[in-house]
Amino acid sequence: MSERQACQLVNQPRGTQRYQPTQRDDEDALTRATIALASQYGRYGYRRITVELHKAGWQVSRDRVERIWRREGLRVPQKQKPRGRLWLNDGSCVRLRPERPNHVWSYDFVSTFTHDGRTVRMLNLIDEFTRNAWRSVPGAGSTAGT
User: Fold this and answer.
1) What is the 3-state secondary structure (H, E, C) of the chain?
2) What is the mean pLDDT of the chain?
3) What is this structure's pTM?
């Protein structure tokens, strides 16, 4: 079977059979530089890495860096969410670390249903240093517990 007939059979252009990929002389060095920059700047993607390569003196296009990026399986890690903070209007955060008993307290409202469908709500207070909890029960005042 000829090349022409085989390409017609699989519906593929003949030019794809004759294509010879070219390996550039600086491909390995560029790959090493890209991986080094990606490990140094962990949150940078291939576009920012291209800018850093330009600063380092490489004359390289963004498409070529993207091709290397995909071939090497590089990815930008997902941004991690910070722990719960109490944010102020100026952008700063306040999170006190407990240093002694009665220094930092946390509270939480808990709600559940009884077997007959009524709602029971409680306010839980916890001393973060000693982990002692104070629960308020409706109609009974506050009771101490651990």
Assistant:
1) CCHHHHHHHCCCCCHHHHCCCCCCCCHHHHHHHHHHHHHHCCCCCHHHHHHHHHHCCCCCCHHHHHHHHHHCCCCCCCCCCCCCCEECCCCCEECCCCCCCCCCEEEEEEEEECCCCCEEEEEEEEECCCCCEEEEECCCEEEEEC
2) 83
3) 0.46
